[in-house]
Design goal:
This protein is an alpha/beta fold and 384 residues long. It has a single domain, classed as TIM Barrel. Helices cover 44% and strands 12% of the residues. It is built from 16 helices and 12 strands. Helix 15 links the parallel strand 10 and strand 11. It is globular.
Length: 384
């Protein structure tokens, strides 16, 4: 494993290693997106439609990659976006990602559909922690999640606003992916062909959604797809009034995850949000929508002085981070870029992914002729 991991120099290398290790349905859950996956592909392709214009002779022996996001100092301008079901991908799940993020001095986003409790993660690491909140029909569950995140010392809360219903994730329909996995003849054959994963899943602690199991059976004891969970359990009547009320309950920095328009960015400011994650949920919700990077400059021009902007989605290279920052983002976040690594090799895999990205960001800054991230400006970009 470690010899192969050593040869993983980019996200695609880690993706291929994860594909070898995971049963098909679980790999395609990470790798797939909605409908024709147009937006999923566009999220990364959009960066290739923009060029960097470097400067030289800038004295770049020492560079400062740090940023402050939602009041939290990060050692680099990239953090681990919250993602669900992590112990399906590796037995250590969120524990591995938390430790890796701490080792790199960056923020770890934890999903409400996580598989390790907020209390355990809060006690495990001292570096910045973001809790991703899904607005459920069960108000008691909503209140409990806020209280638990605050008690566990989470630094910020992000309300996800782009999952009012589940996206049409056709790969999951073809493969029969559910949480927890259904035991069928086909799935058992796939598990048998991936014994390393199977031993980790079946002989470690029981899989469950740590913060939801006391309130709902779906996802822990009753097998459902993520799309089915969103459609059945989340409150489709959620509106700006609900978001404002949640903001009032949370005693700390508050973020909206899934903002894509200038109009919604302005409303986020009106309800007191400190940050927005410009995101289309990794192309897993509304196919045919814009990429986050394509919206950064427009949103930054409108509200960049009034709210922090995070570019979430499509990040596969350090230069993608530089382009997003130059366009007006304060920081970037990504999910697949570390989930492949988690599936490939657990904590060492996530550290490999973050180490690769950190090296690329530092190298890219030096080659672009900047010594601090705030020197990345719009005049260094040219759009094709």
């Amino acid at each position: 494993m470690f010899r192969r991991l050593k040869n993983c120099h980019n996200v695609e290398d880690l993706r291929l290693l994860a594909k070898q290790r995971l049963p098909g349905p679980i790999f395609h859950y990470i790798d797939g997106a909605a409908d024709d996956e147009v937006t999923y592909r566009r999220n990364t392709a959009s960066f290739e439609e923009c060029d960097l214009v470097p400067n030289v002779l800038a004295g770049v022996e020492d560079v400062d990659m740090s940023v402050t996001v939602m009041g939290q100092k990060l050692a680099m301008p990239l953090f681990c976006s919250p993602t669900a079901l992590q112990r399906l991908f590796h037995r250590d799940g969120e524990r591995a990602v938390a430790r890796a993020a701490e080792n790199f001095g960056t923020m770890f986003g934890v999903s409400a559909l996580g598989t390790v409790s907020l209390a355990e993660i809060g006690a495990m690491i001292s570096t910045p922690k973001l809790f991703q909140f899904y607005y459920h029909k069960d108000r008691g569950l909503n209140d409990a999640m806020v209280e638990r995140a605050q008690a566990a010392g989470f630094n910020a809360l992000a309300l996800t606003v782009d999952t009012i219903t589940g996206g049409n994730r056709e790969r999951d329909l073809y493969t029969g992916f559910t949480s927890p996995p259904k035991l069928t003849l086909a799935s058992l054959m796939s598990f048998a062909m991936h014994p390393g994963w199977a031993l980790g899943y079946f002989f470690s602690e029981r899989f469950q959604l740590a913060e939801l199991k006391d309130f709902v059976q779906q996802g822990s004891n009753v097998a459902v797809s993520v799309g089915e969970y969103f459609a059945a359990m989340l409150d489709q009547s959620m509106d700006w009034t609900d978001a404002e009320a949640l903001r009032a309950k949370w005693a700390g920095p508050f973020c909206l995850k899934g903002i894509m328009s200038v109009a919604d960015a302005k409303k986020a400011i009106d309800i007191g949000a400190d940050a927005i994650m410009v995101s289309n949920h990794g192309g897993r919700q509304l196919d045919g929508s814009r990429s986050p990077f394509d919206q950064i400059a427009e949103i930054a021009d409108a509200v960049g002085d009034d709210i922090e902007i995070i570019c979430d989605g499509g990040i596969r290279r350090g230069t993608h981070v530089l382009k997003a920052l130059a366009a007006g983002a304060k920081a970037c976040s990504g999910g697949r870029m570390y989930l492949y690594a988690l599936a490939a090799a657990g904590q060492p895999g996530v550290e490999r992914a973050l180490g690769n990205m950190r090296s690329e960001i530092e190298r890219g800054m030096k080659l672009a002729g900047v010594t601090a991230v705030d020197q990345l400006t719009r005049d260094m970009l040219r759009y094709r």
